[in-house]
């Protein structure tokens, strides 16, 4: 083991989280801030970091690893993408050092599929963490969200992945489309029956371009109450994402994310007859810990 | 022939068009106004109509037929939907009379498919007109737009149809999604090569939730110039709509709409190996003329 403690940081588009990991890689203290990279002006990343974590970085052996959009063009320092297939060793060998030996950013991944490039930043770290926590070397994982990622892992390395703009499509339809006039102002309580109805329809095979319109017509003819429509639409969009996946009946899926969202995906996968297990945001800390252990000692600042 | 002249009106959400049709059903004068139903307050439809077409309605034998969203809840007078299958005779027998014998609104259609209702208002009239103009009794027709309609006709009657929110999805992605940051502010010139590339990718089978993201990554890696991205995205969305259709190689499709849009659909259908012919907005006048000829004489105001 090269690293005995770690400041693990998840710095995304809209939020900033950090944890101090002890010698067993356990988070002993966590902090979160509404300081996503979109709120930080160019040149202001160092002071923002200092104000959030400066006290922790005073410790003599402090090492900080960060993942997420902080490594993008709009972030602190651009960390070039690693090409798939890639494991956490490749990622550890391609860190972008903000302060040599002390603060580094984990690179994102790029893969090529069907003649098209695809990219991720931050999800690779969550995947490596989930593999560690679950003791897996081969898995199909999904990280639901604004841009969901489906990730195939073999022998501990990410072979390929694909992005689905599921959360963003839901928000666009919810807020800006003609459906927004039919839907209630607030999402209200989750309606699992309406959600399942949406998933089932989407899995039957028609395009979201068509099924989305049923949100309007079912309401027009009083076949679904207005309060059930947001859950129904959520089911349509998530169901469309699942329909697009190649899943054998014996495929086992790992879902990484918040409790509410991973629960929806687990329910939707069950309607496709696919078992799944869920894991939360602790995957990020475990991933950063695993990457840190692989950093070559010559790169670390000795004290 | 019951009706010898007709004021034909297409009153939609965002525009109002009218034509005076002579004894052969030909438009001898046309007018158009930026007075879609969204601009007209409840109770103001009669004066709006009077200001646009009052002089024409002074003629002693004047009969006016209107189609489109003017017959919706938000329009002048709600015209209840006719149930499919329906031909222009059923539609003519279910007109909603604003002024008995003088001014009537054509009802929309409702059909049930896969346990879901679907609706149209205005497109039924264009379909009936296209059938008349092309001398067809059996056809598959598409009316591209904000909400595209695919319509199956047998023996002159609309058997079923399905709505695809294609134009609206394009606008949502174009204006409100993360892709809007990548796309140029103006659509610029149409790029047929980029359009075909988008259609071809969509026809290969992955969901728009996934393919849409390639608009971003192709730009990120300089594989497509920014100026080509709007045409590429248009191809992705229209290609997704076409992929969702059951089309045999010998299917013949009629495309009804504006020259620019029907040209895109004809090109996209050619990439699926499906021949298509195009027809313009004259279909609306021909449809209203055909419906007018079927009105029972007892319903017409004699002069």
From TrEMBL, chains A, B:
<protein>
    <submittedName>
        <fullName>2-dehydro-3-deoxygalactonokinase</fullName>
    </submittedName>
</protein>
<dbReference type="Pfam" id="PF05035">
    <property type="entry name" value="DGOK"/>
</dbReference>
<dbReference type="InterPro" id="IPR007729">
    <property type="entry name" value="DGOK"/>
</dbReference>
<dbReference type="GO" id="GO:0034194">
    <property type="term" value="P:D-galactonate catabolic process"/>
</dbReference>
<dbReference type="GO" id="GO:0008671">
    <property type="term" value="F:2-dehydro-3-deoxygalactonokinase activity"/>
</dbReference>
<dbReference type="InterPro" id="IPR042257">
    <property type="entry name" value="DGOK_C"/>
</dbReference>
<dbReference type="InterPro" id="IPR042258">
    <property type="entry name" value="DGOK_N"/>
</dbReference>
<keyword id="KW-0418">Kinase</keyword>
<keyword id="KW-0808">Transferase</keyword>
